[in-house]
Amino acid sequence: MGKELKITKEMTIGEVAQKYPKTIFVFIDYGLHCVGCPVAPDETIEQAAKVHQLDLTNFLKDLNKAVDKK
Question: Among candidates 50, 47, 45, which has minimal Cα distance to 6?
């Protein structure tokens, strides 16, 4: 069975950044410099991927990798 994701597409950018600060570097690497912008608290990971034309699967994979790093 696959590993359960801690970060899902339904979570908001604000929620992820607050709960998992290590992910901020992933957002920046993907060109999402708006981690602290007014939209972040309400924009989901899925919405951000769509707006910024990102591959959602890879984006989620990288966010979750950042969380799993010790």
Answer: 45
